[in-house]
Here is the input.
Amino acid sequence: MNENADTSQAKRPDIDLAEVERLIASIEADLTKVRSGSEGVDALRSEVDSLKQLLDSDSHPDPVHDRLRSMHLLLDDLVDDAIQGARYVADIGRMLGM
Here is the structure.
């Protein structure tokens, strides 16, 4: 069983923590432009804050990897919601002759 744990760890790619810090700064800047209240946006803000704390604490890459995976899922859901909203906007615009 210990071999399986080692194998699953070996599958994880190395993470460039400096790149993660730049990404988090960009996401955080974008989140300042978004209103609170959306469950997904609030969850993403929480993940960004948690990831920033991990990066500031010189944490081992595994927890950083886990937080990035969580953020990936949250962002994927938010993009799905945004695409759905964009379709409605396009439909309304078409109905209005725009």
